[in-house]
From TrEMBL:
This is Uncharacterized protein YecE (DUF72 family). InterPro entries: DUF72, UPF0759_sf. Gene3D superfamilies: Protein of unknown function UPF0759 (3.20.20.410). PANTHER family: UNCHARACTERIZED PROTEIN YECE, UPF0759 PROTEIN YECE. It comes from Nonomuraea muscovyensis.
Amino acid sequence: MRLHVGCAMWTHTPWQGRFLPHPLPPGERLAAYATWCNAVEGNTTFYATPARASVESWARQTPPGFRFVVKLPKPITHERRLTGADEELRTFLETMEPLGPRIHALWVQLPGSFGPDGLGTLAAFLRRLPGSYRCAVEVRHPAFFADERAARLLERVLAGVGAEWVPFDTVTLFRSPPTTDAERDAWTKKPRVPRRSAALTDRPIVRYLGRDDVDRTVEGWQHWVGTVAGWLREGRSPTVFVHTPDNAEALPLARRFHDAVRALLPQLEPLPEPLPAEPLTLF
């Protein structure tokens, strides 16, 4: 029984010297993060396909059971809207090959304007993907949350290829007015949609966005603690990513979420011991 948890990135300035050793060369930063969490969102691939050498380094720095959920590049999902992007997709998949089974899923994050009328395009795109990859789709169009028929049609498309629907839970963020600059910025950029917590596959993925206040973040994730524990009891293998608007405390919060689930399921495999942020001394 294993729960994977992680953050939106593996290096973040507020973590340096507090949670992770500093300075660290680029070729060691992911390895340090991987002693805290056993999964990470591959957000950087949305903006540019990395060099293959970088991906080879990611593989070297992580154990075989580490999970990457890698986001398809923006030209594929947002600019070409899943059509006519075969060359970009081929290049991306070839670049990601060194990660091998560490790729938990290809993350297809669709723009907010991609609505139910695009489901045929989505279905055709997902069917063209190599069967060796699992897929996870994140939608933001309001119709998928307000219209039951649209939601069922999306679920049918995803079920046809064994893909997961990734919820981005922003309920806690929008529950009360923002109190920090990062929260105010998040209010203008993050989707305001109802919480969805139904798993379609044996590997559900959750993205949870809390607040910059730790206590409010923990209060807001109680729903997910119970839901994830239930999935584990059913034999599913969930992955949960913890975000806050400034992400300053996201790294220890991800471990805290794991601890909360493990309190309900003591048989859950523990996370590794974190690498000390400060070098060990004799005195």
